[in-house]
């Protein structure tokens, strides 16, 4: 249970920091086309941005290759026993709800455990949740760069060198192809909550 408890605690710390900073300054203020989609005004610096990772086929891809539709981006690891499966399943359900509403969306899983999560591993993991889910990994620096862009905390726990766990923050990031990051949701959000929020952003951007 340590992974789950720590992940939730880390997520709360990150959220507290994010709440005091700007989440999307290019979209902030009176001209924010997405203001009606947010629960409250957020102001400060940037979250999200360019990344270069490796997909399930072993191909090097960038954010422009991956974020081609409204997307739900989640950072975790394939060996995660409790937090990640629930969050990824929730995001997959949200994508199906969006499809019923005529909104095509992509769930994205980015591994923070590049040592064990090879392209084959992340591909199999992602496909187990949804046929549209994109699994991404990379070398240690590529993963670190992507995590820094999204202000994701992660750290390897001490212990067994093969069966170790990873602590990590647990937000899901809502990203649009042209606008980039627009908002995030926490673990308490339901599939309907995620679908409603991303649908709002997607239609506002259309």
Automatic annotation (TrEMBL):
Keyword Signal carried by entry: yes
Coiled-coil spans are none
Which N-terminal residues, if any, form the signal peptide? 1-24
**Pfam family membership, one:** SCO1-SenC
Q: Which UniProt keywords apply?
A: Signal
Does the keyword Cytoplasm belong to this entry? no
User: What PANTHER family does the annotation carry?
Assistant: ELECTRON TRANSPORT PROTIN SCO1/SENC FAMILY MEMBER, LINALOOL DEHYDRATASE_ISOMERASE DOMAIN-CONTAINING PROTEIN
> Which protein family is it in?
Belongs to the SCO1/2 family.
Q: What is this protein called?
A: SCO family protein
State the organism of origin: Rubellimicrobium aerolatum
Its taxonomic path starts at:
Bacteria, Pseudomonadati, Pseudomonadota, Alphaproteobacteria, Rhodobacterales
